[in-house]
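Archive transcription. Copying these from loose printouts into the bound notebook so they stop getting lost. Printout 1 of 2:
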Amino acid sequence: MAQALALVGQLGFAIACPMVAFIGGGAWLDGQLNTAPWLLFLGILLGVLAAAGALYKLSTGLSRKSGGSSPDVPYKVEKGSETSGTNRAKKQRHNGR
């Protein structure tokens, strides 16, 4: 239960903090530079992108902790069957073909 609440808190902060920072910064700069509403729109866009990036990092970190596949680990290589390339050539030579 505590882990679930911690996850909810992390997700909330991962979304809210970048949004508040970028939107607030854009609104403040609009007031200072008299460029309303353009920097506010830029702040909204950057806030959404930063929140998406934080959520992506959080979710990929969670999948690695829970035993999900890691992109750093190569795929499992299986042994070839009897009809694979080199075995097939050996078999043909053995059969006289």
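Printout 2 of 2:
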Amino acid sequence: MLTEDPGVPAGDALQEERARGPKATPWLLRRVSQRYGAVVAAHLEDAGLAGLPRPGYWLLMALASGSKDASQLVGAVGVTKQAISKVVDTLVLEGFVERRPNADDRRRTDLVLTKKGARTVDVVRDGVRVAEQAFVDEVGAAQWDTTVATLAALARNEA
């Protein structure tokens, strides 16, 4: 049975999700992430870049946004150095990224997007734009902007 929520019309999707309990929000976030992933994967496949692991998307996007080495990727993506290392090895092997000696510190290795990596970033960004436009079409620009602003605020306030 649904618990009535003042200000939310009976039968409203939000009220129904709230009634499911604490698992509702993580489930919804996962489903939205899956929708993004499906659109991006289709764009990658259309561009002849199928098979890139999803963690690879995040690393390529972080490199395109200014990260230069594994330690910066750890901070940007929020996973362990071991996980970063494994994905970077795959990205290097597949030709998305090159390792280059750091000009200022020989102990460090810079990670640089190849032409294939840069092209992949463009394809991923295009897929994200297409997915987000679909979300805007479904819920309206104002609701989408509020959703993005809320998620951005929550992402800044890491535990």
